[in-house]
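Try it yourself: sequence plus phenylalanine, in.
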Amino acid sequence: MMTTALLRPLTVLAVLVAAAAACAQDTIKVGEVASLTGKEATFGQSSHKGTLLAFEELNAAGGALGKKFELFTEDNLSKAGESATAARKLLSRDKVVALLGEVASSRSLEMGPIAQAAKIPMISPASTNPKVTETGSYIFRVCFIDPFQGTVMAKFAAERGWKKVAVLSSASSAYSVGLAKYFKETYLAGGGLIPAEQKYAEGDKDFHAQLTAIRAAGIDAIFVPGYYNEAALISKQARELGLTVPLFGGDGWESQSLLDIGGAAVEGVFFSTHYSPENASPVVASFVQKFKARWGGETPDAMAALGYDSALVFADALRRAGSADGAKLREALAATKDFAGVTGKTTIDANRNATKAAVILTVKDGRFKFVQEVAP
Ligand code: PHE
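Structure, out:
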């Protein structure tokens, strides 16, 4: 589990990098908004570590346009309202030329209108809800979107022979609401049945009422399109109630905390995500090795890989734009084609989204294990 002890050196390092870069006088200032603490701290910690590593490497290779990059990171505490404040601060106080973030869709939706109004490009590394980039022409992402992820898991459920699936989703997170909807559309269209649908509120700890209703419906599996804390507790409480059916979810499950909190109850779960560190491709292998060397042996997860790629896609666009001007950067980002990163090739489409493969992971012996890749 992520501890504040780990956070402190990380924040100090980020400041040191910024200070070192600042000495070089004129820098390319980049803003990052991340949930470094609070409920989804592992999302922000991972994406930040990936993003920072990318800028350190870019700076070591000379930076871009004759300048070094300077990263300004704001923690939104995983709290609603804070990402908008953080984005405003980065734009007005630090005068950043681009915003990187957020991981969670609801928080990216807060930042989007601010970036759009300022005509400063924003790149979300990992937000998958379609609405994020619909906010406007300056909002991009380097990951796939949830209509695809929902389809992937609906087909997976059908392939496993699960004919009746319960859906237990968050009532408020944009990510969970959207992924539940897209999953249901494809699963029902394929002939599957959803005899039970239950909701929870973000931060809930007790899911016995919902799970008791689900148990009564006699289902083959439970789909939980939510984040790791709730997914882990739901898995535990399902087992306590004698529910032995498989549980499965989406990228929001990917966190070491899922394993720490869920323990034996998350053995055999499945979830879709963006990348697997087990991928043998030279690009992934080299990234995993560099990340481990930089961050105390930690294996990079999907957020780390997407944070890294978001920084590289930004730097590539900046070079092609030949300028840090917002409108020029926007044009260059929109023209991104086949940019080879850790999470595959990034091509930005007309809706400013990327199309990439998904991977399905399971938990075996307390670890994430690659199951299969699903092409877009
Ligand atoms: N896709 C999630 C969202 O939109 C965030 C996420 C991305 C979580 C990648 C884990 C891994 O909210």
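One thing you can check immediately is this: The chain has a mean pLDDT of 94.
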